[in-house]
Amino acid sequence: MHDDTTGTPNGPQSPADAEDAVSTTPVQLPPSRLRRNRPRSRLRALIEWVVVVGGAFGLAMLIQAFLFQPFKIPSGSMIPTLKVGDRIVVNKASYHLHPVHRGDVVVFTTPDCTSVHEPEWAHCNMVGNYADLVKRVIALPGDRLAIAGDHVYVNGEMLDEPYLNTGAVTLQQPPYGCGFTGTRAHPFVIPDGMVFVMGDNRSESLDSRCFGPIPESSLVGRAFVVIWPLNRLGWL
User: Fold this and answer.
1) 165 vs 48, 150, 170, 200, CA distance in Å?
2) How many Cβ atoms sit within 10 Å of the Cβ of residue 41?
3) What is the dihedral of CA 155, 134, 217, 191, to 10 degrees?
4) Mind listing the pLDDT tens digit for each residue in 1-16?
5) Catalytic residue among 75, 94, 135, 205, which?
6) What distance in Å separates the CA atoms of residue 197 and residue 21, rounded to the nearest whole number?
7) CA atoms within a 13 Å half-sphere pointing along the CA-CB vector of 91
8) 156-166 tens-digit pLDDT
9) Active site residue 77
């Protein structure tokens, strides 16, 4: 006989029906098991976070070592292009991919004054307070460089320098007057494997006019962007 309200037969269920009924019931773990699982879950999450943070830190170190590195500008030698306190990023891979270009803003290790040709570069010791310097590449290996008053001449032609302040005087006066003597009549030839660098703030920059051309091997990389302060964010 059937129950009209349920549509199922009356009487005891078969063993198969009983198994089906049991399988649909959620399994409840004893409270003691739940308590034992919590510490393991927290430990696993902690390990995962340590791995993620450690991996991110390691990746950042690799990027800084081989690709990009930030620098803070400590002086006004590159005004108006760079100001004191600006933060820039240097592409350390640039010169592994292409040669140095005239006009590049570069970071390089401070020259070793014991290796320069004294007394021609008589003011090299004045740069000893900095581990790295930032300047602009003015002349490349083999270029004939001359300075006459307010202008720079490379291979006999006046260099166009729109990055300078109006009225900038390239021929330095004391206290920054240095040993450079290249003139239009007697230009200085840049040796192989070296570049001649100057600051954009010509009257207040200790640069290759003071310590001579620098080895290309001393270049840390090419500065390509200002990232701080935000109102000065932009490409170089």
Assistant:
1) 54, 11, 11, 8
2) 9
3) 20
4) 444 444 444 555 554 4
5) 135
6) 86
7) 15
8) 999 999 999 98
9) yes
